[in-house]
Design goal:
Largest sheet: 10 strands, mixed
Radius of gyration: 22 Å
Helix content: 25-40%
Distance between the termini: 61 Å
Length: 497
C-alpha cells in the first residue's frame, strides 16, 4: 500500500489553491494532492464570470455598513472585511517578491471603487457612512460628493441621461482592485505542482471515511471512465464550494450536524462593446432592493479577464436546487438530514421576504430587469448587453441556541475536533478573504505547529499578528509596499495622500 499523503485538497478553486500554497511554504516536505471533479480548474465560484472577482474590501459594498436604529453607521463589518483583504494582498505580494507569481497583472488590476445612491434619504445615509469611514486608516483617501458634475468626472455613465431632479451622491476611492480569482487559482496551482504537489482532474470524490489508523480514506471515480480511486491522507480540506456540505456530511464528523444550505443562483448582464466599456472604469455598488439578500446588492463592475475589459451588472437572483453550477438537480434534497431539517424549516418561515424577492426575480421580464441597470446607467442600450449565468451560492443554514435555524451570509469554517479534516461553507466575501480564512483554519487544525510556523507566516503575511486597523503607520507602510509589488499605481497614489 502506498504511503499516505499529508494533505488532500478537494476542489480546484481559490480556497484549495491558497491553502495548498501556504502549506507548501510552511512544510515543503509534505505530500499534497489536489482533486478536482471537473476537467479544468476554477470553473465554479472562482471563475471570473461566476461572481467571485470583485476584490471585496468593503470600500463600496454598502451591506457591510448598516445604519443603526439611532441613525449612526456601524462600520465593524467593513473594517473586518477590509482588514482580511489586506492579508490576501500581503500574501500575494510575498509570492510576487519571491518569484512565485511572475506577473501580478495576470490576476489583479487597480480599479476605483464607488458607492452610488439616489434619493434624499440614501444621500444622507451615504454621507454619514463616508464620515464614519473617512478617518479610518484602511479607508484613507476616500472622497464623497453630491455634486453631479464631480460624480460625472468619476464615472460619467452614472450621470449622463439624468434629469437632475433627484439628489444623488457617491463615494470614490482609487484603492480598489479587480481580481481574477480564476487566473490566480491556476497560477497558484501551477506553482504547487512545480513544488511537487500532484493534481488530479476529472475526479469526483464520493466518500470520506476514517480508518482504524486515524487516516482519512478518500474514495471516488474518474468521471470520464468510471475508474475508481482511493487516497489515504493525514489531513483533508474540503474546498468544494457548494459541494462541501454533502461531502462533510459523508465524513460523519459531528461538527457538521445541524448545518444545511440554501442555494441561490444568479444572472448578470455583460457588455464587451469597447465604446461602452471605455466610458466606465470603476466598480460601483448601490443599495439593494427591499427584501433582497446581501449577496444581491446591485453593482456595475469593470472586469478585466485575460487582459480584456468588460462591464458586468447584476446580480439578478434566481433559484436552482443545484449546489454547484455543474451540479445535480437533487443536491438540495440529498443534503437534508434529520439533524438539519428543523433549522431549514425555521429558516424558510423566517425569510418569507427573501422567498418573495426570489419569486419576483424569477418572474421578471428581461425589460423589467434592464430597468435596474438603467437606474444606474440611464443611457444603457439593451443591444449592447448579453445575459450570462453566474455561479451557484449556497448560503449557510445553521442552528442557533437562541433562534433555532438561522440563514447566515458569509463564510463558515467547519473543522473536526481533532483537526484532521476541515471545510468551508457559504459565500461572499469568500475569495477576497481567503488568506484570513486559511490562517483561521490552520490555527484550528494545526495548533501544535503554529509556533514553529510563526517566522515563515510573518514573512508571508506580516499583518497576521497585529491588525492594520489599529496602526495607521503600519497601514500606510503596508499600502506602499503592496501597491508597489502588485503594480497598483493608482492605489499607491491614494495610499500616500
Amino acid at each position: 500500500m502506498d504511503a499516505p499523503l499529508d494533505v488532500v485538497l478537494i476542489g480546484g478553486g481559490i480556497m484549495s489553491a491558497t491553502l495548498g500554497s501556504m502549506l507548501q511554504q510552511l512544510e515543503p516536505g509534505w505530500r499534497i494532492r489536489l482533486v478536482e471533479r471537473l476537467d479544468t480548474l476554477a470553473q465554479e465560484s472562482s471563475d471570473p464570470w461566476n461572481n467571485a472577482g470583485t476584490g471585496h474590501s468593503a470600500l463600496c459594498e454598502l451591506n457591510y455598513t448598516p445604519e443603526k436604529p439611532d441613525g449612526s453607521i456601524d462600520i465593524t463589518s467593513a473594517v473586518k472585511v477590509n482588514e482580511q483583504f489586506q492579508l490576501s494582498r500581503q500574501f500575494w505580494s510575498f509570492l510576487v517578491e519571491s518569484g512565485r507569481i511572475p506577473d501580478p497583472k495576470a490576476f489583479i488590476n487597480p480599479t476605483p471603487h464607488m458607492s452610488f445612491v439616489w434619493g434624499a434619504e440614501n444621500v444622507e445615509y451615504l454621507r454619514k457612512r463616508y464620515e464614519a469611514l473617512r478617518p479610518h486608516p484602511l479607508f484613507a483617501g476616500m472622497e464623497f460628493s453630491d455634486d453631479p458634475a464631480v460624480i460625472r468626472g468619476w464615472a460619467a455613465t452614472l450621470i449622463d441621461g439624468r434629469t437632475g431632479d433627484e439628489p444623488v451622491a457617491a463615494t470614490f476611492t482609487t484603492a480598489g482592485t479587480d481580481v481574477d480569482f480564476g487566473s490566480l487559482t491556476r497560477i497558484l496551482t501551477d506553482q504547487l505542482v512545480e513544488g511537487g504537489a500532484e493534481l488530479q482532474l476529472g475526479s469526483q470524490v464520493t466518500s470520506l471515511k476514517k480508518d482504524a489508523e486515524g487516516l482519512w480514506v478518500v474514495t471516488g471515480k474518474k468521471r470520464a471512465t468510471g475508474e475508481k480511486f482511493t487516497l489515504r491522507s493525514r489531513f483533508v480540506f474540503v474546498g468544494a464550494g457548494g459541494g462541501a456540505l454533502t461531502l462533510l456530511q459523508k465524513s460523519g464528523i459531528k461538527e457538521i450536524r445541524g448545518f444545511g444550505g440554501f442555494p441561490v443562483s444568479g444572472e448578470f448582464l455583460r457588455t464587451r462593446n469597447p465604446e461602452v466599456v471605455r466610458k466606465h472604469a470603476a466598480k460601483v455598488y448601490g443599495k439593494p432592493p427591499v427584501g433582497a439578500p446581501p449577496m444581491s446588492v446591485p453593482h456595475l463592475d469593470t472586469r478585466v479577464v485575460d487582459g480584456s475589459a468588460s462591464l458586468m451588472f447584476g446580480p439578478y437572483a434566481g433559484f436552482s436546487p443545484r449546489f454547484l453550477k455543474n451540479g445535480s438537480l437533487f443536491d438540495l434534497f440529498r443534503s437534508v438530514r434529520l439533524h438539519n431539517l428543523l433549522p431549514m424549516i425555521q429558516v424558510a418561515f423566517r425569510n418569507v421576504s427573501l422567498v418573495v424577492y426570489l419569486v419576483s426575480q424569477l418572474a421578471a421580464r428581461r425589460s423589467t430587469k434592464f430597468k435596474e441597470l438603467v437606474a444606474f446607467m440611464p443611457e444603457a442600450d439593451p443591444a449592447d448587453w448579453e445575459k450570462i449565468t453566474a455561479g451557484q451560492r449556497v448560503q449557510v443554514i445553521k442552528k442557533d441556541p437562541e433562534k433555532g435555524g438561522v440563514l447566515q451570509f458569509g463564510t463558515e469554517v467547519v473543522a473536526a475536533g481533532d483537526g484532521t479534516i476541515a471545510g468551508l461553507l457559504g459565500a461572499s466575501p469568500g475569495a477576497s478573504t481567503t488568506v484570513a480564512i486559511m490562517l483561521d483554519l490552520m490555527g484550528r487544525c494545526f495548533p501544535d505547529r503554529m509556533d514553529a510556523w510563526g517566522p515563515v507566516l510573518d514573512d508571508m503575511v506580516p499583518g497576521h499578528r497585529s491588525p492594520l486597523a489599529k496602526d495607521p503607520a503600519a497601514a500606510a507602510a503596508h499600502f506602499e509596499r503592496t501597491d508597489k509589488t502588485l503594480q497598483l499605481n493608482e492605489g499607491q497614489q491614494r495610499a500616500s495622500a
